[in-house]
Design a protein that fits this description.
binds ligand DLZ, LS, two-stranded antiparallel ribbon, globular, single chain, Rossmann fold, alpha/beta, about 200 residues
Length: about 200
């Protein structure tokens, strides 16, 4: 029996995208499996390794702040591969041609999408409810405020077994599905979509 929950991934080309990943370190083995799912799917969709930046934070509660900082920092760096000095040193006598080349080699380092990955497992106190709510609202706010899609890669599981199933590593193979795959597809789709809308 195949997994029926996730919509079919579109055939999309992520080869020009830059993707940020921020993950929490709580429930590390589950996080690792989810990150593997993200990584495999990003590669399948053509996203290049050098265009993926991974950062970690202690727990899920820190994800919104970290995503916000990561996006803001990436927007302020614009890497121009041909500088004015390069232009002056250029042996070509055709300045117009050189200027055209310089602008076409300018590469933005801004992220096209960020994936926030965390695993929250319900305990015996209200901690789970408060953090789940804060993180969900925080990540939504970051994407609306920044204009950069932030993918909600946070499992909010009632039991550890549920989280293992959603990371594709439980002993019940029938129930296994790695949600990291869906998060990577969503990141590429949203990144390409927002490029088309502007
Ligand atoms: C404190 C805490 C607890 C109890 N459970 C989790 C969890 O299941 N998953 C997770 O990502 N983080 C957990 N944390 C840590 C908080 O997210 C946060 O890192 C701390 O409260 C410090 O702000």
């Amino acid at each position: 029996m195949g997994f029926k929950g996730a919509p079919q991934a579109k055939q999309l080309d992520g080869s020009n995208l830059r993707i940020g990943i921020v993950h929490a370190r709580w429930n590390q083995s589950i996080i690792s499996a989810l990150l593997e799912g993200v990584d495999t799917q990003l590669a399948k969709m053509g996203v290049r390794k050098e265009n993926i930046v991974v950062q970690s934070v202690p727990g899920s509660f820190e994800l919104p702040f970290a995503c916000s900082k990561m996006i803001a920092a990436s927007k302020t760096q614009t890497n121009t591969t041909m500088t004015a000095t390069d232009l002056l040193a250029s042996s070509s006598t055709n300045l117009a041609e050189d200027l055209k080349k310089a602008s076409s080699t300018s590469l933005s380092t801004a992220f096209d999408a960020v994936i926030a990955v965390g695993v929250l497992i319900k305990g015996s106190t209200m901690h789970f409810e408060y953090i789940s709510d804060a993180v969900t609202k925080g990540l939504m706010r970051v994407q609306l405020d920044s204009g950069v899609p932030v993918i909600f890669g946070v499992l909010t599981a009632l039991t550890e077994e549920q989280a293992l199933e959603r990371a594709g590593i439980s002993s019940n193979e029938e129930k296994n599905h790695n949600h990291g795959i869906d998060w990577a597809s969503a990141a590429v789709e949203m990144a390409l979509g927002t490029q088309e809308w502007t």
